Amino acid sequence: MSPRSVIKHADWMLGADLGDGVSPPIREIECTSCSERSEASTTQLGPDSWALRHAGGTRHTGFREIVTAFIRATPAPGNPLHREEA
Question: Among the residues of the chain, which ranges form H helices?
Fold first, then answer.
């Protein structure tokens, strides 16, 4: 069996990408009545404040939270590409 075959079938894990320069999750809130949405933000306060102001001004009460989070696949223990952290 070639190394490529072994790696192809090896286990992988998904997790948050914590690398240098990687953005934290980006949040937006969208009104499900009129499709208006908050500005994108890496904090919770901005989108949440927008939703509350929008609800107060329009009486629209349904919202969808849209989150863009950055993830990375890494070799799991037992995968030939896995490196133990020092």
Answer: 3-8, 45-58
